[in-house]
Amino acid sequence: MAEHLLEIHGLHVEYVTDEEEIIHAVNGLDLTLDKGQNLGLVGETGAGKTTLALSILHLLPKKVGRITQGQIHLDGVDITNATEEDMRLLRGSTVSMIFQDPMTSLNPVLPVGEQITEVIALHRKDLTKSEVEDRLDDLLKMVGIPPERKHDYPHQFSGGMKQRIVIAIALACEPKLLLADEPTTALDVTIQAQVLELMRELKEQIDTAMVLITHDLGVVAENCDHVAIMYAGEIIEMGTVTDIFEQDRHHPYTVGLFGAIPDMTKEERRLHPIGGLMADPANLPKGCKFAPRCPQCTERCEREPPVIYTRSGHSIRCHLFDERGEPADG
Amino acid sequence: MEQKTGTNKKHKGQLGVIWHRFRKNKLAMFGLTLFTLLLLVAMFANVLADYENDAVAQNMKARNQTPSTEHILGTDHYGRDLFARVIFGARISLVLGVLTILISLSVGMIIGALAGYYGGRVDDILMRFMDILMAIPSILLAISIVAALGNGIWNLLMALSVSGVPRFARIVRSSILTVKGQEFVEAAKAYGTTDAGIVFRHVLPNCIGPIIVQATLSMASTILTISSLSFVGLGIPSATPEWGAMLSEAKTVMRYYPHEIIVPGVAIVLSVMGLNLIGDGLRDALDPKLKN
């Protein structure tokens, strides 16, 4: 097996509801990510993006969510069945996560400096107190916050500054993988641009790979080198940014996503949203999961689930590409 | 542009803000003054009076005296100085009150934290046990424990603490339930904090407000319970100056020498009122929704 930073094979994640209904949140997902790579993970609400991130961290809600099949390898180690203690040591040091809402992801009663030093102290037991303090000041400077403000509480910061602090916490131990779950959704557009710019810079500095989860294709185009498009717990199209944004071979869902974005250069009067609703994850279609909403749906699509067809690194999970692409080896 | 909003302003921590809000509440400040006075009097009791000679030794020549320059609050029907007995009584009430709260708070906090954080079966078992304790009126519970174990300060302390535990367990549990679902707890997990770290660093400090308020109010009711138990003859051994016991001794002569029952009565009222006012004030000061 080649040395990838993150390798996910055939991952299935289920949630069990109170009514004993089984929700299939992630269905046979394969994903590889190399060191320093930037992957944009796009999909509509409920596609399983956050679930994927939480399964990597083993933070699925206890007793409700579970990984039923598949393996996750992180940095060459199989963490699928890692113990809670092993995972705790990995979290924050090898893999970090940035949550969606900076307003709620900081503890309101602890000064921000303490929240940053906590991570450093947890994972860098070799550092002395004053070294930890120095690191804290460096981190704050890195994210553009005056170190004198380390004694302030989260409510004394603006939303954008809070997200910078969250980023400082996530990057405090220079993780190899950063999972950013819609890091800018709760911020307004100017701040969004600043925060993304900052993340991009810092990522270069410490050479971290990142999975950027978002709804926003524009953000992906700006910040990522690879894109994966998720639908109903599967990756239905994956490739480089050029493949996704500039080629014309696309999964019908991707075509639909782009049709739903306003284009400044065309004189369209209406957007073209994708008809229908996200497939019910408790009751998924038998064939292709997108079939009920797909404008190019055939009888075969309703019968058998498509496999991934890959051509020069650009893979699409759709029967339409059967003849033209070579079937993938998996 | 954001970076320029550095800290020119003086640092005013969380405590400063709370104190600022508390200070605006006149009733609460009155309560705090009462309580501070009580505390000072209790601390310097041995400077103000002599325990052996004034508060305990009987002096049959000076029975049932009304207030005078020699005995500013008069004497009881054993000739003991009421002022001396009241201030030494304050010591007992305060020390017992504080110890009771500390014990029941720590036990209740551990039980509540375990129940709230782990949930499921742990929660069920612990909280049903707490419900059983809650089902028995606290004074009845205390009476049964003292009756079973015998009179004495330590048994009284234990009885009071046991009946205080469920209240704290419940309040800690419910605060933890509201806090533990919040995103910052998940974020803390995502950067590798231990379970203990999450409970003690991230969850409990967020629940400290209601806990402090409950502790202050509980202390008031504990002082009442101590007095009630002593009044019925359980708890503090007689001769020891204790407010409830003083009431009990004075009740036979209440008609002829009302000051003997008024003095300890007023002491109880003032200390309980002081604590309750502080508790109410703290509740308002700690509630961020009531800013200004």
Structural topology:
The complex is a heterodimer of chains A (330) and B (292).
Chain A lengths: L5 E11 L5 E12 L4 E5 L6 H9 L7 E10 L2 E2 L5 H7 L4 E4 L13 H12 L5 H14 L16 H13 L5 E5 L7 H18 L2 E6 L2 H7 L2 E6 L2 E7 H6 L5 H8 L39 H5 L4 E4 L2 E4 L8 E2 L3
Parallel strand pairs in A: 3-8, 3-9, 6-7, 7-8
Antiparallel strand pairs in A: 1-2, 1-4, 4-5, 9-10, 10-12, 11-12, 11-13
Chain B lengths: L13 H10 L2 H18 L1 H4 L2 H6 L25 H37 L1 H16 L2 H12 L3 H28 L2 H8 L4 H37 L11 H8 L8 H28 L6
Helix pairs in contact in B: 1-12, 2-5, 2-12, 5-6, 5-8, 5-10, 5-12, 6-8, 7-8, 8-10, 9-10, 10-11, 10-12, 11-12
Structural overview:
The complex is a heterodimer of chains A (330) and B (292). Chain A has 330 residues and is of the alpha/beta class. Chain A has helices spanning 49-57, 84-90, 112-123, 129-142, 159-171, 189-206, 217-223, 241-246, 252-259, 299-303, and strands spanning 6-16, 22-33, 38-42, 65-74, 77-78, 95-98, 177-181, 209-214, 226-231, 234-240, 308-311, 314-317, 326-327. Chain A has one domain (6-327): 3-Layer(aba) Sandwich (Rossmann fold). Helix content of chain A is 30%, strand content 24%. In chain A, strand 4 and strand 5 form a beta hairpin. In chain A, helix 3 packs across helix 4 (129-142), helix 3 packs parallel to helix 5 and helix 5 packs parallel to helix 6 (189-206). Chain B is elongated. With 292 residues, chain B is an all-alpha fold. Chain B starts with 13 loop residues before the first helix and ends in a 6-residue tail after the last helix. Chain B is built from 12 helices and no strands. Chain B has one domain (34-48, 72-290): Orthogonal Bundle (MetI-like fold), CATH 1.10.3720. The A-B interface holds A 57, 59, 63, 88-93, 96-97, 99-101, 104-110, 118-119, 122-123, 144-146, 148-149, 151-153, 158, 160-161, 166, 169-170, 172 and B 2-3, 6-7, 11, 14, 120, 182-184, 186-194, 197, 201-202, 205-206, 208.
Summarize the structure.
The complex is a heterodimer of chains A (330) and B (292). Chain A has 330 residues and is α/β, with parallel strands linked by helices. Chain A has ten helices and 13 strands.
